[in-house]
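Postdoc handover notes: sequence design on the structure in folder B. Input tokens:
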């Protein structure tokens, strides 16, 4: 089994995935119908998928 690095993961697209802008974020963040979050803070053209963290069994994502 091949382990994907960060470069491959950020470009990976899922079939049927649709992205929508998150309100009140000045077009810096989008969320997909699969629950993934994309940030346009560092890559303003393609965006970058943000990895969530886990704290005390809760999945957490911080938008700055």
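Designed sequence:
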């Amino acid at each position: 089994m091949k382990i994907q690095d960060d470069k491959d993961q950020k470009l990976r697209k899922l079939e049927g995935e649709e992205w929508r802008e998150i309100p009140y974020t000045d077009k810096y963040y989008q969320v997909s119908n699969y629950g993934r979050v994309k940030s346009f803070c560092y890559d303003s053209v393609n965006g970058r998928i943000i990895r969530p963290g886990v704290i005390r069994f809760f999945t957490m994502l911080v938008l700055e």
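Context for whoever picks this up: Helices lie at 6-11. Don't rerun without checking with the PI first.
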